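Continuing from the previous page...

OK, I double-checked the sequence for NAD(P)-dependent oxidoreductase against my notes and this is the correct one:
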Amino acid sequence: MEKQIGIIGIGLMGHGIAKNLILRGWKTRYLRHAGNQPTDDLDAKGAVGWPSASELTRTSDVLILCVTGTPQVEDVLTGSGDVLDALRPGTIVIDCSTAIPSSTIRLAELVSAKGCHFVDAPMTRTPKEAEEGRLNLLVGGDAAVVESLHPLLSSFAENIFYAGGVGSGHQLKLLHNFVSLGTVTLITEAVACAAKGGVSMGALVDCLSRGGGAGVALDRLIPYIQKEQTEQLRFTVANACKDFSYYNQMADELGASHLIAAGIYHTLDGLVRCGEGNAYMPQQATLLQKHVIT
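Thanks. Re-ran it with the corrected sequence; updated structure tokens here:
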């Protein structure tokens, strides 16, 4: 019998996941929700929308969660979504959100007690790669279960990195975002300072790109520095702030140093408090000229 795949969260990333699952022949259903992206194209390809999370769960062999973060995952599983009680023995829950690892481990224990499996598989890359089926997945969970999921995950991911047991995928995602988004924030702060000092933006970009500042973060920022284009990094300040709050909590729980991460969080949180949470990360280069965060 073909596996029935359920998805909760048809946002910018979830839409691409659902589309590629359908294109590769997986029987795909999703939760109808006001926060979804338009789903007409998915419906036309054969996807079926379900009215409640619990009903969707009861008929799913694999349930993919593609929601924002820990509060939403907890609500889906143990709160208003009532998913935990609706799980059938043997169901595999895949959490593609960015979440606090300690919460992931706790939820995985609850899922396991129902005779089911929990895998954390947060994503990197952007909605563009999601639509192309070229995401990176950072996966934590039982090795045999993860191996069994490889054909499914490969339907929407180009690279799958197995990090270890449950929770390690979310640990790896937070480490990744600390480095990647932290570097973006560092460069945008430098750009803002350079602008206040009258430094040529062309000279700054050339200097960084031909020296120690070269890399993916700078490449994604150059279109904004030069032409105020944000297409290369449509990730909001509020989302980055959330991720850094998770990172700091994780590091604190592990007894690890996180002074630099705390400083980056202070900058992001300062912009959110100034009402700039919906801005995209490259726009920090301008916002940090307007709002001086100290």
